[in-house]
Amino acid sequence: MAGFGLLRVHMEQFLEFIGNNLILSGLFVAVLIAWLAWEVARLARKWKELGTAEAVRLINREDPLIIDASSSADYAKGHIINAVNITPSRVEAGNKELLKQRERPVLVYCKNGQASPQIANRLVGMGFTQVNVLAGGLAQWVADQQPVSRQKGAVKKKDRSVAPGKPRKKKSTETEQSSPD
What we know:
Blueprint: H1 2-20, H2 22-44, E1 48-50, H3 52-62, E2 65-68, H4 72-77, E3 84-85, H5 96-99, E4 106-109, H6 116-125, E5 131-134, H7 137-143
Parallel strand pairs: 1-5, 2-3, 2-4, 4-5
């Protein structure tokens, strides 16, 4: 019986606190509802959010289509190696080049992770089944010290070695010339 009495006292104190702090209590309830709604929406979405380490694993194991949803100016400043720049306006149901890649895993990112979830939703709507979003976008990728390219498109790095049979020209400098003693 003593346990129920103690519980009753605590309940009365709790209700008194709520009555004395209506605004604070209302804000708490609003935040709780918003958090629950966010979690339900997160669990219902059809794409996954990956951290940098998980994205690296995906890139190394599954060769995904990497979509940079940033502006072309941001793409030129730096992007994940082998990423293609597809702005949000170019992701549409009639994009035949994109639809050809439907069965391939996809990694979508943008500058800071704000626009890529919208692109992921569009891709899922187009029939893509393995859509992943890079959490934090390129900003997080760079913060985690991952490599960035400034080349256009998914182009392999050019071989800059000398072609066979063509010797390199040696630069002559003033320091190579001997001076009389």
